[in-house]
Amino acid sequence: MTDLLWFLTRASGIVALVLIAAAVADGLIFSGREGGRRLRPAWWLDLHRGLGGTALFFTGLHLATAFGADLGVSLASIVVPGAATSDRTAYTYGVLAFYGMAVTVFSSWPRRLLRRRTWHVVHLLSIPAGVLAAVHAYQLGTDVLQGWYLALCIAMTAAVTYPVGLRLTGVRNRAAARDRLPTPASTVH
Amino acid sequence: MNDDTNPDMNDVNDVNDVNDMNERIARLAARRAAAMPTATAPAAATPTRPRKHHAARGSRNAALALSAISTLGLAGWFADTSSSGTVSGNAVPDNTVSDNTVPDNTVTGEQVANDPASDAQASAAVVPAAATTSELADGTYTGDSSSNRWGTVQVEIAVSGGEIAEVTILQYPDQDHKSVQINQRALPTDLRDVVGAEHRGRRISEPPTPATAGQSLQGGHRPAPAPPWRVMDRTLRVGSPPRTTHVEHVMGMAISIDVRDDLLAIAIDGVVAWLHHVDDTFSTHPARHADQPTGPRPRRWPT
After folding, report:
1. Is A145 close to B176, i.e. CB distance below 8 A?
2. Which B residues, 7 through 46, put their C-beta within 8 Å of a C-beta on chain A?
3. Average pLDDT of A34-62?
4. Which of A82, A185, B89, B185 could be disulfide-bonded to B144 (CB atoms 3.0-4.6 Å)?
């Protein structure tokens, strides 16, 4: 039984990491208005919310199975940052990533509870949370030395980096377009 | 006349716009009401919460299903690859043993797998061997190789005079630095426990041999300058010389390692693996490594 939980821990952790990357990439595509014309923005937003919730669910599954897999993981080490007795940094990163994800999801669902600007700042926690989750996986993952895992990491990095580039260039282009617009004062004669 | 210059005319236009908009909304509402199926009319009588529209419902469900399938598939694959590591080891004595009966306390893979190892990865491999070995015939016993969550474990014991004279770890989890680091600490302790238990089970009246020196030590009869056993090349030998040397060519130079302590030689493996890792990571001449095998080298001469 503990072996089964151990295998589920590894699998759910990897799947959760992929879902986090997918949710972040989707959010960047949606917020950067780079979704194209065939798919509506509402579709991207809905999928983004779905991926975020699914990622949080699988992260919870990862934690639950890790706790029950007889790995010597105490409840405190997966709930309290810095409470782990071994691999403290890796566990702390994982716990912080989980909290960052939870705050990001529950501040947006079922309805937006915060003012838009505050919500946006909180929502941006998802990016460092994803990075912390990736570092946690690298430091503590059993399969990080496998070739397929390396390929998966490259694919995830590309999937997130590309929309980040689109987002940044889109922000720059929109700012340049705003600068080119005539100011209201210039139309008054 | 421009309408923008006449405020009164602007008000009139605004009112007209609002009226147009209201009419349009009313038309749209009527059209939508007409398009609604009549079966929903009774349901409207009971106030229910409107179902939230998900624009990407199909994709969300597909992502959830794919995630669940991936998790179960990966878990199954992990289980399959883990169990496929169990190979042919047998627990019967080697040809050097005259008696072919399998003693009950022979180290077997099943015993290894069933031992609840929690923190030390190799504990399961060697602790079962700590049982009394009075029924063992002299010879070498090779346990089944067993794969657990950290890797494959296999041990071999040599029995002489009804006692464990030597424990050799044929395989241990060394796939990553963490496993090597753990086993550097765990294996010497476990092997020490094995031989310690073995010696504690001996009768004091037996003639002193190198193997019984430990028992004499524990009985406090006489102090001895060195422990009764030494660890050499993953092997705990009773009464063996306490030294292991190793020469490794890495980074274009020969590095000599001389261990004069009660450490397993896997510590040397860890050091060598780390040196090669550093070399592979930071070397600016990757072609130089093409003809050089990586990992621990078999050039080791116990003295």
Report:
1. yes
2. none
3. 89
4. B89
What is the per-residue pLDDT for B34?
A: 77
* B residues 130-189 lying closer than 8 A (beta carbon) to A: 148-149, 175-176
pLDDT for residue A31: 85
DSSP-derived letter for residue B93 is B
Inter-residue contact B151 to B140 (CB < 8 Å): no
Q: Are B124 and B132 in contact (CB under 8 A)?
A: no
Lowest mean pLDDT among B20-34, B59-73, B160-174, B211-225: B211-225
Share of chain A above pLDDT 70, in %: 93
Q: Which residues of A touch B62 (CB under 8 A)?
A: none
The answer to whether B91 and B141 have CB atoms below 8 angstroms apart is yes
Whether A45 has its CB under 8 Å from any CB of chain B: the answer is yes
Q: What is the pLDDT of residue B150?
A: 67
β-partners of residue B60 are: none
Cβ atoms of residues A105 and A122 within 8 Å:
no
Q: Tell me what the pLDDT averaged over chain B comes to.
A: 61
Q: State yes or no: pLDDT of B213 exceeds 60.
A: no
CB atoms within 10 A of CB A149: 17
Residues 149-178 of chain A whose Cβ lies under 8 A from any Cβ of chain B: none
CA nearest to A111 within chain B: B52
List chain B residues with CB under 8 Å of A15.
67, 70-71, 74
Q: pLDDT-derived band of residue A175, with 50, 70 and 90 as boundaries? A: confident
Single out the residue of B184, B150, B83 nearest to residue A71, CA to CA. B150
A168/chain B closest Cα distance in angstroms: 26
Q: Which run of H or of E encompasses B232? A: strand B229-232
CA separation (Å) from A127 to A16, A28, A131?
14, 10, 6
- Alpha helices (H) in chain A, listed in sequence order: 2-31, 41-68, 75-79, 88-106, 116-123, 126-140, 147-180, 184-187
* Averaged pLDDT, A53-61: 93
Q: Which amino acid is at A3?
A: D
- Residue B293 contacts residue B233 (beta carbons within 8 Å): no
Residue B303 to residues B230, B231, B233, B246, Cα–Cα distance (Å): 11, 12, 11, 10
Asked whether the predicted pLDDT for residue B198 surpasses 60, the reply is: no
What pLDDT score does B148 carry? 62
Nearest to A32 by CA among A164, A179, A159, A180: A164
